[in-house]
Description:
This protein has three domains: 4-195, Hypothetical protein af1432 (Orthogonal Bundle); 209-275, Phosphorylase Kinase, domain 1 (2-Layer Sandwich), CATH 3.30.200.20; 279-486, Aminoglycoside 3'-phosphotransferase, Chain: A, domain 2 (Alpha-Beta Complex). The protein contains 20 helices and ten strands. The protein has helices spanning 4-15, 30-40, 46-54, 57-60, 65-72, 74-82, 93-110, 114-138, 151-169, 173-185, 237-253, 282-288, 293-308, 322-336, 338-349, 387-398, 406-413, 417-432, 437-460, 467-486, and strands spanning 209-213, 217-221, 226-231, 260-266, 269-275, 279-281, 357-358, 367-370, 373-376, 383-384.
Amino acid sequence: MMNLLEEAIIYATVLHQGKVRKFNGIPFILHPMEVAQILSTMTDDQEIITAGILHDVVEDTDGTLAEIEKRFGKRVAFLVASESEKEYPGEAPAETWKRRKEESLQVLSTSTDIGVKMLWLADKLANIRSIAGVYSEMGEALWKRLHQSDPEMQRWYYRTIAETVELSLNKTGAFKELIKHINFIWPGTFDSDKAKYRKYREVSVEGCRLLGKGAKGEVYRYDDELVIKVFNQNNTYQDVEREIGLSRRAFILGMPTAISFGIVSVGDRYGAMFELVDSDTVSNCIARSPGQVEAYARIMAELAQSIHGISVSEADSFPPAENRIRSYINSGLAYENEALARKCTALIDALPRTGTLIHGDFHTGNVFLQNGEPLLIDMDRVSVGHPIIELADLYYFYVILGEDGASVIEDFMGFSCETAQRFFDSFLRIYLGTEDEQKLAEVKEKASLFCYVRMIRRLRWKGTPSESDRKKIDHYISLIDKLTGKLDTLAIE
Length: 493
């Protein structure tokens, strides 16, 4: 009786019969066999190796996932599906190349099955071995023979794959060989040390107290002296390095920042360690003492004034904060109403260039109190822009998110919607230095435009909007329409 691998070899050989590889004309079946061999150096899991043999069946033959599942099981079919790109009938492969790659990379980055990462690594290593061989002979003329003729786009694709599988598979020979080939074709893409054995300090947060959570990950109290931020699985080593780099540059300019002193691995995710002795987040302080919310609002308002008092130049190389808002518009409102999206973009573009440093993710969960002094973490959105953008973020976190359900704010901040509202109102009065209700209302109105744009993007990112979400989106579009017809500027005096 044949085992799983033997049956897969026969099945794939029959389906790939007559097909040859693009560059050298050898039988196509040798590629999936090479992928299976590479996988065998990383694992003895027969389902993963079987998926390597079958990984091109759906894309390049008449074989189907349903048939693979019936013959080889659900997990093998699942693994093959992770490597099978969506088809766009009637469109040229060159025209859909980037779209197909972005969609498939999303599958890779969100998967929790190590088999998916192994399969991707093995397949791309086999491919880049072939590309590197032809590149040695043809040089840059090679790219004209591919669907994607721009070598920089090819570098983006292979670099992203390497970054995504790095933490899980950086100790494997396959990963190190992939890095060597990438650096051969595109010199300097990766530090050459990545092609050598590297072991990250491994830590566990099991039993550690959760201090807060956000879009990028969670923060835990590791021990009496250390706090660890555990990044979400789709964050690469380069993402963590970039955040630490931004943090250090902001610290030099005067932003009170907790500086990380090392990157660690936490299971299959990256973590950054911070020395924060006898400290806790402002969110947790408010949750314990909601009656003191005005006092904590003062701490946060004075911190914001301090940050926004820092002027930066182009030489400091912080990204424009407006870029983030434009991305919210382009990935949400623009799909709903292009004309309205253009009006919002015009208001964003008209904001005065103040050269002001802003945190970009400023809320009480990202501020620690250490001996009464505030220290910031989560520095990946540090940027330069108009302060209204920071105020709009706060309005979004403490007020507008509550429109999607009180539990959203309560789960995020750790305290009630009512307390969150009181916090924001106190914060805004102290930050602006006014009790003028008209002035406060004007700032909230301007901030709300940013928030409604962000809410549309949030609702769309859930997937196909439900009937209730559709009503919310239409409601926010109506509010944005009224605001763009009323507001001449989003700047605040």
